[in-house]
Known about the structure:
Blueprint: E1 3-7, E2 10-14, E3 22-23, E4 34-38, E5 50-51, E6 55-58, E7 62-67, E8 71-76, E9 80-85, H1 91-109, E10 113-115, E11 117-122, E12 125-130, H2 137-146, E13 151-153, E14 157-160, E15 169-171, E16 177-180, H3 181-186, E17 195-196, E18 203-206, E19 216-227, E20 233-237, H4 239-248, H5 253-258, H6 262-274, E21 279-285, H7 291-302
Parallel strand pairs: 2-4, 4-9, 12-19, 19-21
Antiparallel strand pairs: 1-2, 1-3, 5-6, 6-7, 7-8, 8-9, 10-14, 11-12, 11-13, 14-15, 15-19, 16-18, 17-18, 20-21
Helix pairs in contact: 2-7, 4-6
Amino acid sequence: MSYAYRLAALKIESDLALPDLSPWDGSGISEPDISFRLGAVPPRLHEPDHSEAIFQTRGRDEYLLVLPGTGRILVRHGRQVTVELEHGADPINTCALLTGPIQAVLWHQRGLVPLHANAVVIGGRAVALAGTAAAGKSALAATLARDGHQPLADNLCVLDDAGKTAPAMVLPGVALLRLWRDTIEHLAIPADGMASALSGRDRFLVDRWSACREPRALAAVIVLVRRSSVALTIERLSGITALGALRDMVQMRRPASALGRSSEILGCLTRLLVVAVPVWRLQLPDDVSCLSDAAAEVLGALEQP
């Protein structure tokens, strides 16, 4: 059985169910832009030019991931993903891998820049909520969505810098928000029937708000830092500090470097600062009760010149 999904404006055909993604609603006879296929994957690339513990690359268009407990995944030309699963590989975690890190590799191969960020449409433009795992990206996006701001992408925010002289465009991504149970309860979201986002974890896929499905110009990047002992504060970053914060938020940065993408990524991030896209650092206490105040800080920052 084959499934068809939409990601940005691209059609994906997959041998595996990927419930994170929106079903394809375009022409049923159109050729896929990206395919996820089950098949044999070699244990090594032929003459790789970069090797690390769990991945190898050859040139700009071949990436091999060997992940014990899951299997082997080969990504080629930004279009073809071949998956050879180990016996007993968890389908939920496999889906999270394919629509997260592997999706990021696909975008790198297609010449775009994926940030580890959610994106929300505020005032008609995209605001990227960036951060490491468990920084509160989806929780803050859900709080802003509750207040009427459309989600644009969850966990991975893709920048298209084709214009080079204007703010990058943010492509629509995964529409579902991955929320922990404490956030769901805090926002009073009915949890009945929600699918799990990760096996064995109290995290769920939430499809409550209508997501934006059109690219939006990037208005700002908010880098979230979540710690148990900090007060809620926001500060604007500039210069090399802002550039370093953006660079740290590039998803799958080591594979991207191995694929020869470093200079292009640096150029894209530098142009964001040249065209005056503001970068803010928002420090969050590890407490869901601060989410409304954090959302207010984000909205306040966007009003500043």
